[in-house]
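Re: that backbone. Tokens:
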């Protein structure tokens, strides 16, 4: 298998991503798009989409993009800003690499709703290990 196929297989086996209904739409080195259809399981008792669901989607795109170079990457820090309550439908998170160093890399994620409105932004920093994604175990 190639590195992207291994990464997609690893993501699809992730129980949390499956629980929330996340799907990787596209991935290339340093970039990823992950989405999920919003449903009642993503809502708070106030009836709005839970910030944790939005964060989880952003974090998933961050994980896929940061591991797309076939080196194990683990988050060191993230900072998320919520801008608005999303419209019903599909949420899409796109993650772009801003800096790729030997051991540290930084990323920016934008989450948009079904109307294309920005719902949240996230900045993330990862530590990169010299271990292929498929071979790494913690």
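Recovered sequence:
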């Amino acid at each position: 298998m190639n590195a992207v196929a291994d990464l997609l297989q690893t993501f699809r086996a992730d129980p949390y991503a499956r629980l929330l209904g996340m799907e990787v739409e596209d991935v290339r080195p340093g970039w990823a798009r992950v989405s999920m259809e919003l449903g009642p399981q993503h809502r708070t008792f106030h009836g709005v989409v839970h910030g944790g669901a939005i964060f989880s989607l952003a974090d998933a795109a961050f994980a896929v993009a940061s591991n797309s170079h076939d080196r194990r990457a683990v988050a060191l820090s993230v900072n998320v800003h919520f801008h608005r309550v999303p419209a019903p439908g599909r949420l899409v998170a796109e993650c772009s690499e801003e800096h790729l160093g030997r051991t540290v890399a930084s990323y920016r994620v934008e989450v948009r709703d079904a109307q294309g409105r920005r719902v949240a932004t996230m900045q993330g920093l990862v530590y990169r290990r010299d271990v292929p994604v498929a071979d790494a175990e913690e």
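Strands lie at 22-28, 31-37, 73-82, 90-100, 104-112, 118-128. DSSP finds three helices and six strands in the chain.
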